[in-house]
Fold this sequence. Notes:
The chain is an alpha/beta fold. 43% of the residues lie in helices and 16% in strands.
Amino acid sequence: MPRAFITGITGQDGQHLAEFLHGKGYEVFGMVKGQNNPRMVQMRDEFPYVEPVPGDLADLPSLVKALEYTQPDEVYNLGAISFVALSFNQAELTANITGLGVLRMLEAIRMVGGAQNNSIRFYQASSSEMFGKVRETPQTERTPFHPRSPYGCAKVFGHDIVVNYRESYDMFACSGILFNHEGPRRGLEFVTRKVTNSVARIHLGLQQEIVLGNLDSKRDWGYAGDYVKAMWAMLQQDAPDDYVVATGTTYSIEDLVRLAFAEVGIEDWQNYVRQDPKFYRPAEVDLLIGDPTKAREKLGWEPEVQFPELVKMMVANDLALESKGR
Ligand code: NAP
């Protein structure tokens, strides 16, 4: 039975990945931060097959202990301060967890012996936010980075240190440059879920309006359930490498809002949406669109869920949750 150790198990991707790996027959260990993490109640109910292991990306000894205990074949480093807006307010914390946390995990793998015999395969959750002020469109594995947030900067460090450790110590370390991926498990702070949840609440008479930032921003949005399959596929190759994972299509925030309101039969969505500059980023990322050719050709990976279907799925989920009072 292969063994997988996942950081960020309580997040959106950690949950999808745990489900996917369990389905493939893996023994799944999930790193849980804090002495009484509130998300663990839901985790125990929904994912009884995941064994929680204490640890924190800020604490190298805890990572070493976790690896010694779990003896994994594969490590998926999904833990991060992942919300771009928060990274502007807590830039040092973001650099420490999202950036230096990657270095600590790689060092922990070397310490428990993975680097010497190349036995532990490592996946790093890199991000399209590294492209920021894009140098070319669409973005590929060779597009230069120009991050526009502390989050993007921390992810660039994480990405570069993975490449460096792979080249320096012959580690099987891969980096997935994932474009935005969403789903019913997305946190309420992220714009897709904020919109689908608000639309459900407006439809049920629980809320009057949605307050948003820049409606013109465009993103390449996919479904998280599809994207975790690409993470796994990277670690099954003969050699480690980096891959862009994206749909290759783009929609604006306005498209998201229009599609979500249409799901509850509201066409005049403008009457329910207010823009507030407080939600604008200090430095904006306008057009992110990925070229997933390499992932398609080498991993055989294709996104299955298209954006309109994704919005439909998320609105339906929020309607069900809000109808029963969560
Ligand atoms: P998420 O839902 O925000 O989950 C983040 C996870 O990181 C949570 O489980 C959180 O645990 C954990 N974490 C935070 N601080 C930690 C620390 N000090 N030590 C250990 N764990 C810590 O993020 P996601 O959407 O699943 O994304 C997974 C990864 O992919 C992240 O690295 C993200 O930056 C990256 N990524 C995501 C996207 C996307 O569109 N979703 C795109 C590109 C890259 P707590 O429960 O303790 O808070």
